[in-house]
Amino acid sequence: MKKTVTICFANNKGGSGKSTTCCNVGYELSKMGYRVLLIDGDMQMNLSLSLFGEDVVLESAQSGNNIYTAVTQQTAIDDYITPTGYENLDMVLSSSLMSNIEFQLFSKWQRELILKNCLKNVKAGGKYDFILMDAPPTLGGWVMNMLCASDYLIIPVEASPWGLFGLANMFEFFGTVKQINPDLSLLGVAITKVDTRKNYFKQTVDALQNTDDVHLFTNYIRTDSSIEWAQDASLPVAVYKPSARSAKEYKALTEEVVSLVNR
C-alpha cells in the first residue's frame, strides 16, 4: 500500500458491534500481512479489553500510557503504542478518563484536528498500512476529531428493531465532518448481530439498500456465541475458535474492506 489508510468505526448507537468489528477486522488484516495499529477512543475500553486482560488495561490507564494522555497533552502517538503479542498488530489503549475528553478539547485551538496532528509522525513514518479507530457511541467533538483524522468511516449496524435508530443523525454528522475533512469517505455500513430467521435482518437490509450513496457490505456478521466467549477471553474470535462461523465472516468482511480501499 502506498500510504497509511485510517478507518474509523463509529455509530452513535451503542451495542452496534463497533469494538468487536474493529478488533476482528484489525486482526484479520494483520493475518493478511498488513501492519495494523488499533486506537481505542472509547471510555468503555472494550477494544482494549478485546486484546488485553483487565489488569493490563487498568495499568495502562493508571500509568498514562493511553490515548487520553496523548490527546490532552497533544503529543505524538508514537510513545503510547503497545504491542498486542500478535504479529503486525499494535494498539493505543483507552482510559476511563476519556469520559472527560469533551471538556478537555473544548478550549483547545483547532480542536477538531488534535488527533490528526498526534498521528502525523506515525503516518509519515509509514510503519503501518492501516490505522483502525473505535469511536464512542456519541456525536460530539471527540468523534469529530476522530473522523477528521480518518480517510474512511465504517458504520456497524445491529440487525434489530432499534438498530437503525439514529442512523440518520450519523449520516448528517458525517456530512458535517466532510466540510472540515473533504477527504473523508463513507466506506460502508456493516450489519452485525444478524439472525437470518428474523424479519429484522431483511428490514435492515431493505432500508439500507434504499439509502442513497451508502454502500452496504455484502458480508455480514451473524450472532455467534463464539464472539462472546472470545471477548471474555480477550481474544480475536479467529484465535479463540478458528472454525467459528463468525471467524470466517470477519475474514470475508475484511477482504471486502481491502477490496474497497484498493479499488
Q: In the CATH hierarchy, what is the architecture at level 2?
A: 3-Layer(aba) Sandwich
What topology, given as strand order, has the largest sheet?
3-4-2-5-1-6-7
What is the string of SSEs from the N terminus onward? EHEHHHEEHHHEHEHEHHHH
By secondary-structure content and strand pairing, the structural class works out as alpha/beta
Spatial shape: globular
The CATH class is identified as: Alpha Beta
CATH overall fold name: Rossmann fold
Biggest sheet, open or closed, and with what strands and sense? 7 strands, mixed
Please characterize this protein's 3D structure.
There is one protein chain. The chain is α/β, with parallel strands linked by helices and 263 residues long. It has one domain (5-261): Rossmann fold, CATH 3.40.50.300. The protein has 13 helices and seven strands. α1 packs across α13 (245-261).
What does the secondary structure layout of this molecule look like, with pairings?
Elements: E1 5-9, H1 18-31, E2 36-40, H2 46-51, H3 54-63, H4 67-72, E3 82-83, E4 89-92, H5 101-106, H6 114-118, H7 120-124, E5 130-134, H8 141-148, E6 152-158, H9 167-180, E7 185-192, H10 199-209, H11 225-232, H12 237-240, H13 245-261
Parallel strand pairs: 1-5, 1-6, 2-4, 2-5, 6-7
Antiparallel strand pairs: 3-4
